[in-house]
Design goal:
The protein is of the alpha/beta class. The chain is about 30% helix and about 25% strand. The mean pLDDT is about 95.
């Protein structure tokens, strides 16, 4: 089979190599899956660079989220067991963790439903306890993680403010359902949020960016508001002073979604059931901006790492070369 491999850490466009390799052999409790589509996540970029908390042994095949097909023809969503990741024709995954792919989504959409939407659901509902009528602020609202949070916030009855970088991304954020869109390239984020909320601020802030975005969040969070720290796509990890949440009476909540797979896997299944129901009634739908063939995976992962994409970029092994859409 063909699979992308990383023999040394570095930029994806430089160190990912497409090779002919043997199909992986499933271990105890694992299954072999034919990859129908593999969604690109920012952790894939970090893993290739060697900057992620999980460091698979070299060489490895990246790709942490797929829609796959079992030997008996079932369409499933899975997190491949590294080092046999999803940017390949076949991958392996833990049998007990397989989730049914919703009939309402195609392969690329199903591949993009899992990590981003689970993270959004756990962040907004489990951690922040978002309520209907509250105001939700989402940083990087046009990205894969951000657009999922926007859709989930709207489905929960919140007013959603999206922060983006650039006019093209602003259009995508509006398409995802944002009630207010703020372009950080041309607007003062703090002033714009205060204006949109009548000076009150946002009840829940969803931050996958860190850095300056977190500093802005601390200035616009409402009384008894909640800032959900999801990641640090900016590359800068904030070091907040704890006197600030004390005097302003707000909470800073960390979210490491992957822990639920070991700490409370039943809750992951429950979340998937909720997401499947939301897709069935059209309340959420992964925003797939690009479908690229297997041969285009390295370049696509690099684009995600460079921050120039919107929504989700999905690798589809069965797509003909030159068939990107």
């Amino acid at each position: 089979m063909q699979a992308w491999q990383v023999h040394e850490n570095g930029e994806p466009g430089e160190v990912m190599r497409l090779a002919d390799v043997a199909r992986p052999t499933p271990g105890d409790g694992q299954v072999l899956l034919k990859v129908r589509a593999a969604n690109i996540n920012f952790p894939d970029v970090l893993m290739v660079r060697g900057h992620y908390q999980v460091r698979p042994p070299l060489p490895f095949t990246p790709g942490v989220e797929i829609c796959g097909e079992t030997e008996d023809g079932r369409r499933v969503i899975a997190n491949p067991a590294l080092p046999y990741g999803g940017f390949a024709e076949y991958a392996v995954a833990d049998a007990a963790a397989l989730l049914a792919a919703p009939d309402s989504l195609d392969d690329a959409e199903a591949a993009a439903l899992h990590i981003g939407y689970q993270t959004g659901w756990f962040g907004l509902h489990r951690r922040a306890r978002l309520e209907a009528g509250e105001t939700l602020l989402v940083h990087a609202a046009a990205g894969g993680v951000g657009s999922a949070a926007v859709q989930l916030g709207k489905a929960a009855g919140a007013t959603v403010i999206g922060v983006v970088g650039g006019t093209d991304k602003a259009a995508v954020a509006r398409e995802s359902g944002c009630d207010v869109v703020i372009d950080r390239h041309s607007e003062n984020v703090i002033a714009a949020v205060k204006e949109a909320t009548g000076g009150r601020g946002a009840d829940v802030i969803y931050d996958p960016v860190g850095g300056e975005a977190y500093a802005q969040s601390a200035k616009v969070v409402a009384f008894e508001g909640r800032i959900v720290v999801v990641g640090f796509a900016s590359g800068t990890i904030p070091s907040p002073s704890l006197n600030h949440p004390l005097v302003k009476n707000y909470s800073v909540l960390g979210l490491h979604w992957g822990l639920y797979n070991t700490k409370n896997p039943k809750l992951v299944q429950h979340c998937h059931e909720q997401l499947t129901e939301l897709t069935a009634r059209g309340a959420i739908k992964p925003l797939v901006s690009e479908r690229v063939p297997l041969g285009g995976a390295a370049a696509a992962v690099q684009r995600v790492g460079d921050g120039v994409t919107t929504g989700r970029v999905v690798v589809v092994p069965g797509l003909a070369e030159g068939g990107a859409a």
